Amino acid sequence: MSDRSFIETQFPIAQLSSESYRERKAVSGQTLTGLGKWWGRKPLVLVRASILGMLMPASNDPKKDREIFLKLMTMDPDGVWRRRKGNISTREILKRVPDYKDAWKASSKEEREELLEEIWASLSDEDRAELEASKSFPMGREEFEGLSYDERIKLCLRPEQADGPDSEAWTEINAHLRTSASTLSELVGQLGERQFGRQPRVGDCFCGGGSIPFEAARIGCSAQGSDLNPVAALLTWSSLNIIGGGDGNAEKVQHYLAEAMSACEAQIREWGIELNEQGEQADALIYCVEARPPGCDYFIPLAPSWLVDEYMGTVVRWQRVQDSDRLEPVVEVLPKAALAKFKKTKGATIVNGRIVDPFDPNRTWPLESIRGPTGLRRWTSDDLKPDAEDALLERLYCIRWVDAEGNRRYAAPNDSDASREARVEVLLQERLRQWQEKGFIPSARIPDGGEKTEEPIRTRGWTHWHHLFHPRQLLVHGLLAERSLSTPDRMLKVAAMLNLGRIADWDSRLSCWLSSPTQIAGGKNTFLNQALNPLFNYSVRPVRMLRSAQITPSRRVQFGGEGDVKISDARDLTESSDLWITDPPYADAVNYHELGDFFLAWYDKQLQELFPGWVPDARASLAVRGSGDDFKRSMVEIYSNLARHMPDNGLQLVMFTHQNPAVWADLGMILWAAGLRVTAAWTVATETPAGGIKKGNYVQGTVLLVLRKRLSEEHGFLDEVYPMVEDEVRRQIDSMRALDEGGEPNFGDTDYQLAAYAAALRVLTQFQTLDGQDIGHELFRAQDNGGRGRNVEKSRFEQVIDRGIEIACDYLIPRGLDNVWRGLTPDERLYLRALDVESRGEHRQGVYQELARGFGVREFRPLLHTSTANSTRVKTPGEFGRKDLTGDGFGGTQLRQLLFAIHTTRSSETPDAGLRFLKDEVANYWGERQRLIAILDWLAELGRGEAMEHWLADSEAARLLAGRLRGDHG
């Protein structure tokens, strides 16, 4: 065995990406998400793989190492086969979870896979065992293994849900690693003892939602998590003590919260505020803002759509009422033809920041016209709804009712509903002060000046956190708090706090109402995106619909180690860890301290009682954020502190999700300045599409940087470093190619680009200085624009990284073009490499940007047919047409002439026209003919690929033209 760990030599990227993506797709069915909302939790399978990869030593047999590692992760063929779930009757599952029946009926086919994950997580061990015994699997092993890895794991439990390797696998594992384990925790203990002389200690100083400490403790490590944010610390504590606490804690919590909700429902029934005269129960209540623009003699209800429920064909129209300045809603169910017509405009009364008259769409007003020059009135702490004189009022405009048989209908509110609304306000006023004093509902002010928290203040005048909730929501949430926070049991009280936070996320004035053609419409959660944006119309959940919003702590989790969590500034940590695994905040990607305050407003008073040493404040002034020099200094201090608190043979792993190469380079320099050296870097796909919420070129992968202490004081010089980087890049790529066995590729183009980053970083970070300059000089050089922008001149560090990418791009020659590659210009190489990655189904814009950067092509957009975030591809010859046939860039290249010749061949239906063009335009045609034929042959094969149907006609034209050139003898 060598001194290097498995993760420093290789990592099963393809399988881990598939498993991570599948875990993230489970959404609320993930192990930890049921405890509450947090941003950027890393998949548990990735954490597990990272820890095992750092503890497992690399041998001189990399293929055997890989085989053993996959066995540990149950990602080898035998392990995946054992993980298969089989078919279990959905009806039988739903029998055991009656609380989910309504949610199941209302969900679409696409959503049911996610919901089923959540339901399965909520089942008791006994229910699971009974259902497992009844399952059947639809195929044999040979057919199963004929599927792709992605298709196979759709039929399987996730690795974290499986029992781990079987006895046969353990025999092979132990023989290779010289261990005697029969469980992951035993193996972790033995590997830790061998490497560090003790059970390995894993630390995370940005613990967030708790993925890293939780998974570390589960597989047998001594885990410690810390965070400045008490909301994050609370989630991590709960993951360790509720889900990982044993003794049936999760079942105990679910039972307790179900009883509290039942008591709450009974009180709501007694008050009669959610029942109508027909005995129907409220299933959803929808509210909107209304305003009276200048010169208008009535208030206009505002919403971006009055399409209430496309699935049920329900819309709202507005009508004038005699002698009234208030419009009345009319709820209609439209036939398909009328609904299709309505969908074109959706009846919107707020469009692009302008109010639209519902009776005359040509009559509009800017929203600012009602806000006035001084803005909106700031609400006082006593306000629960808008004042009658406010510019923006609020009203209930639609209710969905459900009868005893489950039949749903929408209706406009009537006088009885108005009486029930008034009753809600009276009930709340009677309890408001007492509940706020006890911390059952929020009373704190919204902090001024925050990027996210300023939005509700500016756009609505809301000044306190309870303003983000309708009186009906405050009444129900407060009642649930009163019922659930009365217990002396610390664990149950913590669970009750988290439960209130999760319900607040799903039931606030920021919960949008979404219609769908495939399912019954419903309200979504506040943090559907990473903002606190007030809405023009929103949903309120009656108590019956809050059950599905409660926390659902996963069961059947056994810990092999132990874990602890505390609130601490990462710069002040004094505890040591053998392995530090961190997912740091970076470049203001998420304003954790601001968004977390939404939840902290529900926790603050209870938190002080339950955790006396914790400060119930996100301490924004200490939060590490931004991207300037202060941020860099903070990060250097943090990682220098972590390096001091780890043994010389310890490792660090930084999980990093960002698409900006300049930001990436800064992080590399920060880690270098902290006394760390990079030994490996990998990219794993961890992010899932967000249904239109995330737009643009959002990041799909997480970069894993593996680091060790820099123990030597070597000094490097650029003229020596460049050839070292070149050798290291080629060595890295060669080793990765050797592990790529065809079939399902282990590495993609992004992996190779990141490998070039890693190779450059491995060379650079072994040195104390570069050309006599300390890394601090590079990191904190004076910036241009008075310190407001980045340096115009790239640092030595960035120059070396750029060179690594250039080397990788030149070294990764598409198969079949080896003999012509050296004679191509950078623009030609970029186009052909872009086609190469496109042919393998890669459409992320960032990959094409990195290719352009690697080939030194400044302007690559003219090559693109589309630059949509995840649909990027280059133009075909037909899409180029006659455009861009001259110039200094791609337009002036021989390859561009060749593409036009293909287009001419296709459009004229004869290769003779293409041949004539090439003879007329290509300098030294006879000397270049064999090169042109080789490129045409390569392009002719493109149309055969599954992802390249759009190349079929052009590929056929290329084939014909290649044949004509071969037969051309003058």
Strand content: 5-15%
| SS element count, helices | 35
Calculate the mean pLDDT score and round it.
Answer: 87
Indicate the CATH class of the largest domain: Alpha Beta
Low-confidence stretches: 689-699, 782-791
Q: Kindly report the spatial arrangement of strands forming the biggest sheet.
A: 16-2-1-17-18-20-19
- What can be said about the biggest beta sheet? 7 strands, mixed
Number of strands: 25
Shape descriptor reads globular
Distance between the termini: 64 Å
CATH homologous superfamily of the largest domain, by name? Vaccinia Virus protein VP39
Number of domains: 3
Q: The CATH topology of the largest domain, please?
A: Rossmann fold
Q: Label the CATH architecture of the largest domain.
A: 3-Layer(aba) Sandwich
Rg (C-alpha, Å): 31 Å
Class from helix and strand fractions: alpha+beta
Helix content: 40-55%
Describe what you observe in this structure.
This protein is α+β, with helices and mostly antiparallel strands and 970 residues long. The protein is 44% helix and 13% strand. It contains 35 helices and 25 strands. The protein has a seven-stranded mixed beta sheet, with helices on both faces. Strands 3, 4, 11, 12 and 15 form a five-stranded antiparallel beta sheet that branches. Strands 5-6-7 form a three-stranded antiparallel beta sheet, with helices on one face. Helix 26 (749-764) crosses helix 28 (796-811) and helix 32 (894-908) packs across helix 35 (952-966). It starts with 12 loop residues before the first helix and ends with a helix.
